[in-house]
Amino acid sequence: MLPPKIFVTGTSGYVGGDVLYELLSTHPEWEHSITCLVRNPAHEAQFKARYPNLRLFFATFDQPAVIEEEVAKHELVLHFAMSADNVPSATAIVNGLRKRGGGVYVHTSGTDILLDLGHELLYTPNRIHIFNDWEGISELTSLPDKAVHRNVDKIVLAAGSDTLKTAIVCPSTVFGAGRGPILRRTEQMYNLTRLILETGKGLQLGDGKSFWNCVHIHDLSRLYVRLIDEAIFGGSKASWNSEGYYLVEGGEYFWGDICRRITKEAYRLGLLASEEVMVLDMENRAVMAPAGRPVANYKVKAKALRARKLLGWTPSQLKLQDEIPEIVKEEARAYGLS
């Protein structure tokens, strides 16, 4: 069997770079048949040093026709770069695969799409709505148009056909050390840590019981590779198109607990004067904005059943709570405090 021709965007980024690592660790013989879209030519040397046989394709999302022509030469596309919100790139990928006569499109969205769905105040404790991708698959594929990422999700969902398989991978907070060639860290927890270090004391929003889901980057990458293998080797386990929506989570966390753990570790390292945690009321929630929109979420959570049931995927890496010491140390170094 000839190696598959795969087109990948966003491999200089955190998730895309780690998936590329996992994919080539699993199938090193595929390196010469993978094309990576590179939007910043300055990254060429780093890619070549790490993956000398990888084919690099230089273009930007302001050139959708160019991307479309290149996509048409490949049987499978993995989209990571600005994937959740960039309409021209998703459209170019769909058009390119249609021009080819079909193929497989694995798209990356995000669970922020579940926020603000009919809730006036996410931060008012109330009944929790659990989205799941098994019995609740139709709910996920028919979310209101006002939902963030929904405009691009609709493009991907509408493209699915007998000849064009689509899958949407929808991860929650991603954490852990990445293994890609360029960017190896995520923003959310590092931004929260920096905010606490800059403030000089711990921060907590309200009662600290707002929550969200999370998944380790290595576990997430293993799921992508399982989907890719299903597509390339003609497996029958994965579901596609209208049933190809995969939430990804390895558990959940409470924001207050994470904030206290960051504060305690920063104090232990001598980065804060005390373990004091300042409680912010909800009217001042904008202070916590660097941590992301879910910081005030009391209403919704995700349950990833599809990957577990169909692909046998189970998260096996460290929990977010166990990663806090390394996150604090790394952010302190970046901030010039150690």
UniProtKB/TrEMBL annotation:
Q: Where are the transmembrane segments?
A: none
Q: Which GO terms describe its cellular component?
A: cytoplasm
For molecular function, the Gene Ontology terms on record are: aldehyde dehydrogenase (NAD+) activity
SUPFAM superfamilies, alphabetized: NAD(P)-binding Rossmann-fold domains (SSF51735)
- Source organism superkingdom: Eukaryota
Q: Name the InterPro entries on file.
A: NAD(P)-bd_dom_sf, NAD(P)-dependent_oxidoreduct
- Name the UniProt record assigns to this protein: NAD-dependent epimerase/dehydratase domain-containing protein
Organism field: Penicillium daleae
Q: What is the lineage of its organism?
A: Eukaryota, Fungi, Dikarya, Ascomycota, Pezizomycotina
